Structure to design on (223 residues):
């Protein structure tokens, strides 16, 4: 059974999320404060974490920032903050998805299922080690090295990089990458692809190696 952590200070919303997820076969743990949620996330293994932004003790942005220093568990932000700045910041800090309140509980369940299943498919799709220039992707170990130094990627950053690396010299549109990696079709926002591509570039590009190329007006290609 997949285990979900819900960090939400509104008890009624947290219980609604939990009820819908449990009906769909997930087990859930709840935390009402950012500090206690982070402690749980660090001390236990979860398949996915749902985080509100406006939390007592420590806000959601700080929670994911500290979480990403140690773990790459898939994260969905679920917040009343609907402005683009909050969305971009959340994705930039390593969230895999961003939903706004009020929300459809069935859509939340669909996104949770999609993120977990896509992550597992891409993670288990190959046990080979890919070596491209100064970049090494070890899918069995779920690790990335650049110039023999480990690089920390979020779960979705890793999935996206792995997909592109497994399909070199092919150009994919943002829509195609969103469908292949996120697998949410019309449920999400394809702008998250560009945010994740930029974060991957910041982490793996060096002066001599530019692995992901932008094909203007078309999409992205792994060289």
């Amino acid at each position: 059974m997949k285990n979900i952590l819900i960090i939400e200070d509104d008890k009624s919303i947290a219980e609604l999320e939990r009820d819908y997820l449990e009906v769909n076969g997930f087990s859930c743990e709840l935390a009402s404060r950012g500090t206690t949620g982070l402690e749980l996330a660090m001390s236990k293994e979860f398949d996915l974490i749902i985080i509100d932004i406006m939390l007592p003790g420590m806000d959601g942005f700080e929670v994911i920032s500290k979480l990403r220093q140690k773990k790459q568990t898939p994260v969905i932000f679920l917040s009343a903050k609907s402005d683009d700045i909050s969305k971009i910041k959340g994705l930039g800090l390593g969230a895999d998805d961003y939903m706004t309140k009020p929300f459809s509980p069935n859509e939340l369940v669909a996104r949770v299922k999609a993120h977990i299943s896509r992550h597992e498919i891409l993670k288990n799709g190959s046990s080979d080690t890919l070596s491209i220039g100064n970049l090494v992707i070890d899918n069995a170990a779920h690790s990335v090295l650049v110039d023999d130094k480990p690089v920390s990627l979020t779960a979705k950053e890793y999935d996206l990089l792995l997909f592109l690396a497994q399909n070199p010299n092919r150009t994919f549109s943002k829509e195609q990458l969103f469908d292949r990696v996120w697998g949410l079709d019309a449920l999400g926002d394809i702008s998250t692809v560009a945010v994740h591509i930029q974060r991957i570039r910041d982490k793996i590009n060096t002066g001599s190696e530019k692995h992901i190329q932008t094909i203007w007006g078309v999409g992205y290609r792994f060289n």
Notes: The longest strand covers residues 3-7.
